[in-house]
Write a structure and sequence with these properties.
The structure holds two protein chains of two kinds. By secondary structure, chain A is α+β, with helices and mostly antiparallel strands. Chain A has two domains: 40 residues; 422 residues, Cytochrome p450. The model of chain A has no long low-confidence stretch (mean pLDDT 92). Chain B has one domain: Ubiquitin-like (UB roll) (Roll). Classes of the chains: A alpha+beta, B alpha+beta.
Chain lengths: 480, 106
């Protein structure tokens, strides 16, 4: 069938492929950035800016006016009470005019699971954050099958449990090094010195990125996911595009550098670029630079603040529920289950976005084709219908592994075993060294409706007497 | 009603009593069989209850549905007899069934 629209599609693909193959990627991104800036200066586009104001209690807001896309909800501790009200009174809730446009909120565990598992009706395209990201990266998290499957399969080897076994001892070494260099005589920022540092090291390992420049991976990732238009964050567009250009240049160089080293006889490692270069499906991925960059970006973003905020969140949870810390110290074999409970309690990414591909009745509501639908994992993970005393942190909770922080269905987090492994190793090494891990004061919270995170957290450590410091090693579950 | 056997990747067998109508995933998790997680609670939406049905039994159980395929085919260990245990219901006809577990669940 040769309709006008399919001719247009084919032409578009041909042009895109040609551009990708001939114009250096960083120049393309630079071009997009300049075009956006021009639009802004001409008053044709107004980026969103958010100013914090006190959020009223949910009982004081008419149901139809409730807007949970406010990026200050987490900071003000208001998300939980708002979602409790929505779960009870309007589990499929429509907000007609948020700063990001209209959207549906799905807030009960069972309903979220149903939407997440139904990629035929609820599409992940064109993007999975609430508002438009600054440029259209080709990431498989925002693709539907069958294209999604091809792309995911191409890279999943890097975080497959088999590969994780190879990485475990290196990751452990790096965790040990971080922990052995922490001050124990005064409080320090856990987010900076532990969570960000360990996560940054892991990302550099995953990509075989120059270790001394690892902070760039964290910076690029934070900058991209901090777009105000996308998630209510604080990244200005003028910062965003230079970061994206830098990322494109560095990742392109990384590919060519690795190819040259392998050609010179360097033995194959377990990093992502090596895996791509040694697999039939992806050995020429550099010729599709936007696909290459998109998937690399996805991996650094996916593995960055999620793991970081779980590392910080676990410390906070054990402080808020001190009996659980005693339980943990008495029985370190609870570490793997605690890791799942940490990930549930924290829910590092508050939601994922979908678009209805057709009209559908759901939860007594009529969702129209094209409507934006948000699956609020942060709400589902606190749904009393699924988790008894859902707001409590219980390290031996029987159904902790049923949490939805990794999502469900074809997009279920590819890095989930890597995340679990890092957290397990962290807590094994922490329990070996420290008797107390005390949060001092209140943590700072990230401004975002997407990333549920900590900007800073002061912690004071009390080491165990050296003679009591024996290695803690526990059996992982069936992943890594 | 009979028993089925889950064989871990290292060859360790675990024999479990069949309970009519229960899924094989629930049978495994209720009986502490290591190597099956069932993270989504049995909705074919996590892929962590991957099992490989023995050749002698695949005609009885049948091969996987499309619903199972979209999850289990993401695993590098997926083979022709791969199924999601949460979609296999225990019946008397499965008495004596053996399934193998992959090295890893995704």
């Amino acid at each position: 069938m040769t309709s006008n629209s399919s001719l247009f599609q084919r032409t578009k693909v041909r042009v895109t492929d040609t551009v990708q193959a001939t114009v250096p990627t960083d120049r393309v991104i630079q071009g997009v950035g300049l075009a956006q800036k021009a639009k802004r200066l001409a008053g044709l586009e107004t980026p969103l800016v958010f100013t914090e104001e006190p959020i009223p209690d949910p009982a004081d807001v008419p149901l139809e006016e409730i807007d949970v896309s406010n990026p200050f909800m987490n900071r003000q501790g208001q998300w939980y009470p708002y979602f409790a009200r929505l779960r009870e009174e309007a589990p499929v809730h429509y907000q007609p005019k948020s700063p990001f446009g209209p959207f549906w909120s799905i807030t009960r565990y069972a309903d979220i699971q149903a939407v997440d598992s139904n990629a035929e009706v609820f599409s992940a395209e064109p993007f999975i954050v609430l508002g438009p990201p600054p440029f259209n990266a080709e990431m498989f998290i925002a693709m539907d099958p069958p294209k999604h499957d091809v792309q995911r399969r191409a890279v999943q080897g890097v975080v497959a449990p088999k590969n994780l076994k190879e990485m475990e001892s290196l990751i452990r070494e790096r965790v040990q090094d971080v922990l052995d260099n922490l001050p124990t005589d005064r409080p320090f920022d856990w987010v900076e010195r532990v969570s960000k540092e360990i996560t940054g090291r892991m990302l550099a390992t995953l990509l075989d990125f120059p270790f001394e420049q690892r902070h760039k991976l964290t910076y690029w990732s934070d900058t991209i996911s901090g777009s105000a238009d996308a998630t209510g964050g604080t990244t200005h567009q003028d910062e965003l595009f230079p970061a994206a250009v830098d990322l494109a240049r560095n990742f392109t160089a990384l590919w060519h550098d690795k190819a040259a080293r392998r050609a010179a006889g360097e033995p194959d490692g377990f990093d992502l670029i090596t895996l791509m270069q040694t697999s039939e499906d992806t050995k020429d991925l550099i010729k599709k630079p936007f696909e290459f960059l998109g998937n690399l970006t996805l991996l650094i973003v996916g593995g960055n603040d999620t793991t970081r905020n779980s590392m910080s969140g676990g410390v906070l949870a054990l402080n808020r529920f001190p009996d659980e810390f005693e339980k943990l110290k008495a029985d370190p074999k609870l570490i793997p289950n605690m890791v799942s409970e940490i990930i549930r309690w924290q829910t590092p990414l508050a939601y994922m976005r979908r678009v209805a591909k057709k009209d559908v009745y759901f939860g007594g509501q009529f969702i129209r084709k094209g409507d934006v639908v948000l699956m609020w994992y942060v709400s589902g993970n606190r749904d009393e219908r699924k988790f008894e005393n859902a707001d409590d942190f219980v390290i031996d909770r029987k159904n902790a592994r049923n949490h939805m922080s990794f999502g469900f269905g074809v997009h279920r987090c590819m890095g989930n075993r890597l995340a679990e492994m890092q957290l397990r190793i962290l807590w094994e090494e922490l329990l070996e060294r420290f008797d107390r891990i005390d949060v001092v004061g209140e943590p700072g919270y990230v401004q975002s409706n997407f990333v549920k995170g900590y900007s800073d957290m002061q912690v004071q450590l009390t080491p165990k007497p050296v003679r009591e410091q024996t290695p803690v090693r526990v059996e992982a579950t069936s992943g890594a | 009603m009979g028993t089925i056997t889950f064989v871990e990747h290292d060859g360790t067998p675990h024999q479990v009593e069949l309970e009519d109508g229960t899924s094989l995933m629930e049978l495994a998790t209720n009986n502490g069989v290591p190597g099956i997680d069932g993270d989504c609670g049995g909705e074919a939406s996590c892929g962590t209850c991957h099992v490989m049905v023995d050749d002698a039994w695949i005609a009885t159980t049948g091969t996987r549905t499309e619903l199972e395929s979209q999850m289990v085919e993401m695993s590098p260990e997926c083979g022709p007899n791969s199924r999601l245990a949460c979609q296999l219901r225990a019946t008397p006809a499965l008495d004596g069934l053996t399934v193998h577990l992959p090295e890893f669940q995704m």
